[in-house]
Amino acid sequence: MKLTELFTQPDPDFGKAMTALLEHFHHSDDSQAPYQRGSFTHQLDQSCMPTIGISPRDYLARLATLVPGASHLTSPRYMGHMTAPLPAFTAELSRLLVMLNQNPMKMESSRLLSFLEREVLAKLHRLVYRQDDAFYAAQMHAKDAALGVMTSGGTIANVTALWLARNRACGDNLFALAEQGYRGAVILGSRLMHYSFDKGMDLLGLGARSVWRLDTDEHNRLSLAALEQALQQCRKQKLKVLALVGVAGSTDFGSVDPLPELAAIARREQIHFHVDAAWGGPTLFSPRYQGLLTGIEHADTVTLDGHKQLLVPLGTGMLLCRQPDLMMTVKREAPYAIRATSFDQGRFTLEGTRPANALYLDAAFQMLGQQGYAQLIDANYDRARRMAALIDASPAFELMSAPVMNLLSYRCIPPHLQGQVPDVAANEQINLFNVALQKAQRAEGHSFVSRTQRAVSRYGEQPLTLLRAVLLNPLIEEADIHALLDDQVRLGNQIASQLFE
Ligand SMILES: *Cc1c(COP(=O)(O)O)cnc(C)c1O
After folding, report:
1. Atom of ligand 1 nearest to the CA of 314
2. Which of 43, 50, 348, 484 is in Cβ range 3.0-4.6 Å of 327 for a Cys bridge?
3. What is the pLDDT of residue 38?
4. How far is the CA of 146 from the centre of ligand 1 (A)?
């Protein structure tokens, strides 16, 4: 076979085989190829490149051994992570996008798709900030303005927000803060802030200790008393507060910080106000639930993730800016490509070359519409309430937080401790039990939730192992929820008899 044929001759059988692989995958679960580290690493232990290439058709045999080992995230009984099943049209759309291979870092390598990116960002900006037609007409395609940037995900969006906030405070020169009389710089947020903020402060040269994780109230929201106290401490220690972070949909609980109050404090103190709505942002589509996010419109910057509740492929995040000139504080240029006088989005993005994933968002916006998203959100948030009620009604479970969005935290209680108020020693036993249970459920492979470790106010400071359910898949039915909980009760009984006899 001539190498050039790889570029010119699509093999129709290759495409058909791919469809068959996917079809089979979507009708199975992790029990088909149980996770065992040893067998997985043994399967993939070759460090030498092949000397001679094989045909795509011969490569199919290898693919057939790889695909079943992937995580079956699209199963409606997998409620453990924030990764969604994708609408079926995504498969063909991704073929188009990948083969167009556009690079929206610069106009010359993406042309119209650069402007599509701006249009998509404008629609989301409007969802969050609700400016008028005149604003969007003037700003959407303005040259020295950006309503936001596309990123590969929430992490890079949060890091970009810190970068903006730092440059707002002192340009790219941290020593300028010393000249202003500061002895250091910090960001303030709740203990539930995503760990991407630690990465960001580390990269800015400020270290993870500059991330102040403050106490939360009994609803897992940033405590305003703790915030005022921290601000006082910063004044006393002459620390510059680079940003106040509000979380709109915490990773563990889906809780939302008191955004209107945080906005008022940030305005009073003249601090950059960032809202991390990577998970919760799309709540704004739902007339029923959008009130949860009141106050987000005051944020200077907002992080959104497309690859979570907007149901587009991985690698799609965004940072929105209330004021379109804010991005100028991080503007960078390169003479060969990213020219100062251009429309190149690469002037503002932390990432360089990246895919034109705005097309996925455009397709989803056009085909689902605002109402479609609202329906999916409402159904998921309602399902979470239904599942919470089932958990709350059973002595075999303890619900650890009332559902705000569609994330639930709970734990299983072993039979001998059901119906009691657990003390510290009992909580330790329950922790061990839930770790073993989560692992056993994962190993069995029919259903799945993730686990985390958090203190909850009911039990003071003691770290507790919590099970975490994410109700994101639109195809989850009541029977799937029952099946998942039944698996936990059944496995729990087996584990309790091994652990506690
Ligand atoms: C998922 C998430 C992030 C990180 O986003 P990635 O896309 O995984 O980089 C940050 N903050 C919150 C609240 C999240 O839910």
Report:
1. 7
2. 348
3. 87
4. 22
Model pLDDT, residue 344: 81
476: Cβ–Cβ under 8 A, 6 or more apart, which residues?
A: 76, 79, 383
**What is the reported pLDDT for 200?**
97
- What pTM, to 2 d.p., does this model score? 0.95
Question: For residues 495 and 501, what is the distance between their CA atoms, to the nearest angstrom?
Answer: 10
Ligand 1 atom with minimal separation from the 305 CA: 7
| Residue 287, SS3 per DSSP | coil
Q: Name the residue of 196, 296, 302, 308 to mutate for ligand 1: max ligand atoms within 8 A of Cβ.
A: 196
CA–CA–CA angle 114, 119, 121 (5° rounding): 95
Q: CA 256, CA 259: separation in Å to the nearest integer?
A: 8
Residue 62 vs residues 21, 58, 300: alpha-carbon distances, Å: 12, 8, 49
pLDDT of residue 345: 82
Q: What is the pLDDT of residues 265-311, one digit of tens each?
A: 999 999 999 999 999 999 999 999 999 999 999 999 999 999 999 99
CA of 245 to the centre of ligand 1 (A): 14
The rounded distance, in Å, linking the Cα atoms of 174 and 182 is: 10
Cβ < 6 Å from ligand 1: which residues? 82, 153-155, 158, 194, 196, 247, 249, 251, 276, 278-279, 305, 317
Q: Which pLDDT score, from 0 to 100, does residue 337 have? A: 62
Alpha carbon 281 to its chain's center? 10
Which atom of ligand 1 has the smallest separation from the CA of 251?
15
Can you state the angle between helices 224-236 and 259-269, rounded to 10 degrees? 20
The contacts found for 90-94 with CB under 8 angstroms, 24 or more apart, are 90/312, 90/313, 90/360, 90/363, 91/22, 93/359, 93/360, 93/363, 94/313, 94/360
- Measure 155 CA to ligand 1 centroid, in angstroms: 6
Distance 205 CA to ligand 1 centre (A): 22
Give the per-residue pLDDT at 226: 98
Handedness of CA 367, 123, 352, 102 (dihedral sign): positive
Q: Which residue type sits at 118?
A: R
Whole-number pLDDT of residue 12: 87
Go through 27-51 and write b for each residue having 16 or more CB atoms within 10 A of its CB, e for each that does not.
eebbeebeeeeeeeeeeeeeeeeee
158 CA to centre of ligand 1 in angstroms: 8
Polymer length in residues for the chain: 501
Atom number of ligand 1 nearest to Cα 250:
13
Residues of the chain with pLDDT under 70: 335-340
pLDDT at res. 362: 98
Best residue for ligand 1 mutational test, from 198, 255, 279, 450 (most atoms within 8 Å of Cβ)? 279
pLDDT for 338: 65
